[in-house]
Amino acid sequence: MKTSKMTNGTASGQEGHVTILNWQGSGPRKTRAGTKKKSRMAGVKITQFTEDIPKGCSTPDFERKPIPLTIQEGKTAIFKAVPSGDPKPEVIWSRANGDMDDPKKFKFTYDKVLNEYSLQVIKANGDDADTYRCYASNEYGEAVCTVTLIIIELGLKKKTKPETNNAGSKDPTEFRKLLKKTTGTRVKQEKMSEEKMWELLMSADKKDYERICMEYGYTDFRGMLTKLNLMKKEREEEQAKYIEAISNLRHIQVNSEGSAEFEIEMELKDLNSRIFLYKDGVMIPYSIDMEMKHNLKKFGKKYIFSINSLMPEDAGLYQVDVESTNVFSTDLPTKFIPVNFASPLKEVKCKERDDIMFECIITHPLPKLVWMFKNKPLEAGEKFQFAVSEDKLTHRMVVKDVMPVDKGIYSVAAGIRSSSAWLLVETEESVDPSIQGKKKPKKGQAIDINAGLTNQPVDGILYNFLKSLGDGSGAGDGAGLGSGGQNSTDGLDGSDGLGKEGVGMGGKGGLGDGQAGQGGKGDGKGGMAGGKGGQAGLGDGKGSLGDKGGLGAGKGSLGGKGGEGGLGDGKGSLGGKDWLGELGDGKGSLGGKGGQVRLGDGKGSLGGKGGLGDGKGSLEGKGGQGGLGDGQDGLLGKGGQMGLGDGQGSLGGKGGQMGLGDGQGSLGGKGGQLGLGDGQGNLGGKGGQMGLEDGQGDLGGKGRQMGLDGQGCIVGKGGQMGLGVLGDGSGAKAGSGLGDGSVLGKVGAGGLGVEGTGSGLDGSGLSGDGTGQGGLGRSGHSGSGGKDGSALDVSGLTDDQNRKKRRAGRSPLIEDTITEPVVHFTRGLFDIQARKGHSAELTCALSSAESDGTWFKDGVKLQSSEGLSICKDGSVHKLVFSNIQDSDAGKYRFEAEGHKTESHVVVTDPPEIDMEELARLAKEPLVVKAGQNAAIKVPFSGRPPFKVSWYKDADELSEDNRTVVEKGADHTRLLIGKCQRKDSGELKLKLKNESGTAEAVTKLIVLDKPTPPQGPVEVLDSSANRIEIKWRPPRDNGGKPIEKYILERQQVGRNTWMKMGEVPGDTTIFATDKVEQGKKYCFRIWATSTEGISDALETDDITAGTKAFPGPPAPPKVVATSCKSITLSWSPPHNTGGTRITCYILEKRKKGSSIWSAATEEPIKGLKHAVTDVVEGMQYEFRVAAVNVSGTGEPSIPSDFAFARDPMKPPGTVNDFKVTDSTYTTLSLSWSKPSTDAGDEAKGYYVEVMPEDSGTWLRYNSSPTNTTSYTIKGLKSMQMYFVRVIAVNDGGLGEPKKLDNYIIAMPPPVRPHFLNESSLKSFMVVKAGNTIRANINFEASPIPDVIWLKGGSSVSKRATITNADGLSQLLIPTSEHSDSGVYTIMVKNYFGQECFSFEICVTDDPKPPGPVELDEKVPGTVTISWEPSPDEKRDEQLHYLVMKRDSSKPSWHTVADNIFNNKFTAVIVSDRQYYFRVFAKNDIGISTASDSPAWGITKQKEKFTVKMPTYKQTDSRQAPKFTVRLKNHTVPRGYPCNMSCAVKGNPAPTVTWYRNNISIMDNAQYYTSNICGVCSMLISNVSTKDSGEYSAIAENCMGRAECTTRLNVTE
Predict the structure, then answer these.
(1) Which of 259, 357, 1048, 1493 is the most exposed place for a label (fewest CB within 10 A)?
(2) What is the pLDDT of residues 1224-1260, one digit of tens each?
C-alpha cells in the first residue's frame, strides 16, 4: 500500500491536510474476515469486524457513493464519495486492473466541508477504462462500493505492427492475437450501468418503469419495485433536510432551436442552499443570465435548466443536487440531439441533358438523409443516385439527365432540420429543324458521385491540389517563382514537372529579375521542358523571360545545354538547340533554320507561320492539324487544336484546346481547355478547364474547374481552386492568393511572389513571411520546395498516340470535381420575438471572418439607419434593433457568397401597466365606508384588442346591478356601488392580448361597525358574592380595531338594565361582586370601534351562590412506575360547576380490594402527582375527583392497573412471522412469541400495514391483540402491501418484524381452468328473438382477464359481458340470426390461460318451401323438385323432408329426410295416383307442407317393337374433369367435416384422396365414397392434427385431374 499526502485545494475554506490512500496491488484489496451487513445504500457491501460495537460507534457506510461514468477520451473523470461512520473511516481507492501510482494521472482530494472524497482520472484514455473501488474502513468494519469507467474512443487509432516471429517459437494458440482487426471508428455500445438505471427510475413516472428497465436489460420487476421504494424513502429522508416539497418533474426535452430543457418545482427550506448540476457525475458550471451553455432560470418555485447549442458530446445523465442531496435525474440520449447543416445545399444551374450533383455537410454523422423534390421523397434509381462519406457527414445526390421538368426546389431533411436549394435548367433552342421537338442529345459527361468522397476536411481538396504542385504533381522543391534578386535557390524545380520523366518545374532559380537567378525548367529527361539548368530565371524585368540559358540540358527535349536564347536572353526569344531536330538556332529564337520541327522563326515569338516544319507549311501548314501555329490555321492557332500560339510575340493561341494563349504578349489563351490565359499580358485563361485566369493582371482562371481567378484568391470567377495572382503586381492582394502566409506561405506548396515593376508580382500578397515550405516572399528566403511529381506531363505534344494515352489515363475534367467555396454558416438565424420598444438583435456566424454579407427585409436590402445598425464582429454578423417597433416585424434574410439564412421577427406588444401605478395600487388600498361607492381606475398600454378581467379573492367578478366594469382603449375602471363589508378583499386585474398578459393587485377595505361579540358566554365564577364571565371577540371588527366592550346587567324579573361598566378591547373577561346570593342575572355586551357600536350579545340567566359540583375528570394515566412510586396525570373536568377548580383528591386501591383510600395526605393543586405510598410488586388502580367552592365532585373512572416496580424492558421481535392465507381483501398472519432473552414478556401485538404507493405504516388494531394470529381486512384487491408485527408490553414497543417481501392481496396463485368443463354445452340452439345467456364457471387467481370472442373477433355490441368472482356471463337480450357463430371465452392471468369454445345457432321455425313440381325422367321414377325455403340462405342446418301417399293408402309416410338440396327421385308404380309433400326442417322445428299436384301413370299395352338405332361409332372417352371443386373448410375442434366434389370422365375415373401429399385411402379415420362421380370424404371428429392441405386426384386411361382444398381446425 502506498500513502499519498496532499493538500486539497478544491473546497473553499479548507484548512490543513488530509490523508488519502490508494491501493497499489493488482485486483481488489484483501478484506478482513467478518460478518456481512446490509447497507442502506444500494450496491454497498459492509463487513463488520467485531460482534459488539460500543454505543455511539458504527461501522462505515456511504451517504453518497460514486456513480458510473461514460466519457469521451481525453476528458477528466471524477468520482465522488461521502462516507459515514464513527470513528471517521479511512478512505482507499483502487482499481481492478493496474495500479494508481501515477500522480499526473490520478489525483485524490478531500473536501472537509462536505466530507467528500474525490478521485480524478486526468485525461482519461482507453487504458483507464476499468472497475474502480472505494473502501471506507475503521476499526469496526469496512464498506466497499464499485463503479465503472467507460471511455469512448474518438477517431482511428494507429495500429502497431505485430512483432514477427522469425523463429516461430511462440505458442500457436497466440495466432489469434495476430489476426488483423478491422479499422473502423465505430464505438461499441457498452451496457449501461445499473446505477444509472436506478437514478433514472427514482425520478421517472411509473408508466416509464418498464421502458427504462428494458433499455438497461433489467427484468426482475418485482424486486425492482421493492428496492426502488426503499431507495426513494432514503432519498426523501435526505431531501427533507433541505427541501420542503418537490413536484412536477419534467424530463429533458429537445426543442426545434437545438437546445434542451428540463424543469422541477421545489420549495427550499433555505433559499441560500446551493444547487449543483452534474453531467455523468461531473459537476458542470451554469449561469442564470443565459450567457453560458448550461443555464438556470428560476420562476418562483420552478427551476428550469437549459442546454444551448446541443452537440453529440452533450448526451448523458444530468442530475440536480441541492447541497449534498440528489433531487432529480434525467437522461439526454444522443438520438435526441438535432443535426445542423455545416454546409447546406447550394443553388445549381445546368443545361438540359446535363448531370448535376447536390451536396451538403452535417455536423454529426447520420447514415441516411431524406431527399425530397416538390415535397415528395426521392428514391434511388436511374434518375437519382445517393452517396454518403465514410464518416457519415457528407451526403450527395446526383440527378441524371436533367430535363426542364426537373427544375424546382430540392431539399434534404436531417431530423428536424432541413436545407433546400434551387435547380435551374437552361434550355437551348435548336436551329436544326430535324431535331426540333425531339430529345436533345446528351452533351455533358457522367458524374462520379463517389469522387473525392473521403473523410478529409473541406480544405483537403485545396491541400491535394497544392500538394500536386510539390509532391510529384507540379512545381517542385524550388516551389515559388522567387525574386531571383537574392540569388534565390527557389525556382521552378528541375527534378520533375513539365517533362514526362522530369521532376518539377524549377531548379535553382526563379522567375527572377534577370540578374543572376540560377535555374531552369528542370532536368527534363525526355520531357518537353527539360534541361539540367539554365543560367537565368524567367525574366530580367525588361520584357523577357530570362537573359541566358535555355530550358535545361535537354536530351531530346525542348531546350539545350546552356543554349543561348533559351527562355529569353532579354531580347524576346525562347530558343534552344535540339528537339526532333533543331529547336532553334540559338540566336534568339525558339526554332531552327531548317529543322524537321521548327518552333518559330526567331522573331520574338514562340511559333512560326507554318506547321511543325520550317515554318513554311512543310508539316501541317496553314489549316493543318499539328502545326505549332502561326495563330491563324496551324496546330493550336486561332482555330486549330493543340496550337501553341499565333506567333504574335507570344506563347499561346486563342481558341484551341490546350491552347497556351492568343499571343497577345502573354503566356495564355482564352478558351481552350487547360488554356493558360488570353494573353492580355498575363499568365491565365478565361474559360478553359484548369485555365490560369484571363490575364487581367492575374494568375488564375475565370470559368471552369481548377480555374485560378486572379483576384488574389483560390477560386476563380466561375471555377474552383484557382491559384491566385501572377501578373504585374497590381493584381496581387495581401492576405489572398497562393502565399499569404495563411494558405500557402506557411503550409509550403508553391507560393508565388515576385517583386516586379510592371510585370512582376508583389510577393507580400502571395508569400506571407516567406517561411512557408516553398513559399516565396520579398525576402526570398523560401522553403526547400515541393516534392516529386509528374501531373503536368505534356511531353507528347507532337505524338498523337501519346496524347490520347495521356488523356485516357487522366480523370475527366467534368463537373464532379467542382468544389464550392468553403465558406458556410456555422450558426444560422433563428426566429425571435421582441417586445415593442425594447432592443433586439439577429445574429448569425460564418466560417470565415473575412467574408461579408448583405441583410434583407422582405426582399429589400437593408442599410444601417436610426434604430437599426448592422454590425460585424469577426465571423459574427448582427442586425441590431435599438428600439423595435411594429414596422420592424417581417422576414429577414442574410446572404453571403451564395449562402443564405432566414428568420422571422415578431414584434409583441403585451399589455403594460406603469410600474409606479402598480406600486401605488399595491401599497395604497382603497378604503370606503359601508354604503358608499368604490371606483378603481387603472391605465395601461399595449396592442388591442384586450381581454379585461377583474377578480376578487381569485373569483372573477361578473357585472350586475352593483358591479360595473368599464373598458377603454387605454384604461379600465371597476365600479362597485353601495359597498358592503363582504366586498372587502384582494382585487386583481388581468389584462391579456395576443402578445401576453399583465396583472395589477390592490385591496378594497369596506369599513363598518363590528359584529356582536361571540358566545356562548363562559361562566368562570358564580359564587354567592361574585360572578365572572368570559366571551369571545366579534367575528368581524368592521375594519377597525375594537376599542372597548360595554356591559349591562339585568336582574331576572325586572325590566331595567343597569350599566356595569366598560373593559378594554383587548380584554374579554368581566367580573362583578354586586350580586346577591340565589338571584339570577342576565348580561348584555356591546363591541365598540371608531365606526360604531355592534349589536348586543345577551347571556343566559346566571345564578349567584348556587351550589354546583364539578364533573368527573378524565381517568388518570400512568406516566411512570418504579418500585417506590407510581406517577399519574389527568385532565380537568369539562364541567367545573360554574366555579374554579381549587384542588383534586387522588385515591388508590389495591388489585382485588374494594376499599379506596387516599393516596395523598393533602389535596393536589396540579394535574400530575407521584404516589409514594405503594408496596413494591403490588398492583394499584387510581381515581381522581375535582373540588370547587361547592365541594368535591364525582370521582373519575379508575385508571389501568399499574405495578409498583421498575420499568420493564420492551419485548423482542416475534418469531416465525408468516402469511397463512390471503384473499382479495384479507390477509391472515401468524407468529410466535418473542424470546425473553431479548426483552421482557410481550403483553400484546400491533399489526401494521404499508401500501406500496403510500410509504406510511398504518396500524390496523387500535389496541394490542393478545393472540399470535391476526386477519387484516378491508384491503384493496391486487394491491401490494408491506406487513410487520410489533410486540408491546409495559416497557414499550419492541422492534418490528417485517416480512421479507411485499404481499399482494390475492388468493394463492391458481392457473385458470373451467369448472365442470365436461358438462358445458358445446352447441346451443336459440330461437330468434329469445335471450342468449351463457354462464361459464372458472377458477383462477389472481383475478384473470376474461375475453369473449366470436369467430376470432370481438362480440357484438349488443352483447353484455358480466364478470364476477369465478363466473362470466354472456347475455344477448334479443337474439338475431347474425348472432349465430362460434363463441370463445378466454381466461388468462400471470400463470396461464384457458379457452373454451361453443357454437350458438340462432334460428326460427322455418318457412315452407316453394311450389313443388314433378317430372318423370326415368320410367318408373318421378323427380320431385321444389323452390328453396326463404330461410335456407341464413340457416346452414336447414334441410328438407319428403312424404308420399298413393291412391291405395290413406296415410302419409316419409320417403326421404335430411335432404340438403332441392330435388328427390322417388320410385313409383304405374296405375296409381301419387301425392307428395315437402317440409323444411331445422333445429327448432318443421314448417308447414308444400303439396305437389297428383301424379299418375296409366299403363298402356302396345305391341312391343324394337327398332335398333344405327349409331355412328364415336370415341366417348374423356379425361377426368372436376365439375364441382373442393371448398376450403374451417371447423372447430371436435366437429365433423365433410368434403365433397364432383368429377366426370370416361371411363369412370378412380379417385384417390391425399392429405399433405400422403394417401389417406387406407386410414380408418377418413371415410371416402364415390357415388356416380360425387366424391365425398368425411372426418367424424376433427382434431388439430387434421389441419392441412387435402387433395382429390382422379385418374383414368385418358388422363389425370387434381382438386385441392385446405382444412383449418380452430380451438
Answers:
(1) 1493
(2) 889 999 999 998 887 888 889 999 999 988 888 999 8
